[in-house]
Amino acid sequence: MLLVNIDYIPGKEFEVLGIVKGTVVQSKNFGKDFMAGMKTLVGGEITGYTEMLNEARQIAVKRMVDEAEALGADAIINIRYGSSSVMQGAAEVIAYGTAVRYTLS
What we know:
Elements: E1 2-3, E2 14-27, H1 30-42, H2 47-70, E3 75-87, E4 90-102
Parallel strand pairs: 1-3
Antiparallel strand pairs: 2-4, 3-4
């Protein structure tokens, strides 16, 4: 599956199948959340949250790809990500794009 964040694929003609998305709500465990709170006192990157969001993006992309494959897609174009805080220590991540299938030209 080809994944791109542009709205075309150089040298390819394609049929648009529709919008596909994957979403996940991810949270940290209490121990890591406590350590993240301590980190805010001294500043710097909160690696526990960085890791949480990276994992959430991977899950969201996998779900988006699964949805595109169910449609028979060859690629997903114009991919975007979004995130929002759902509650203290939990975030939603969404990946979305347009599923396409190559056509013969």
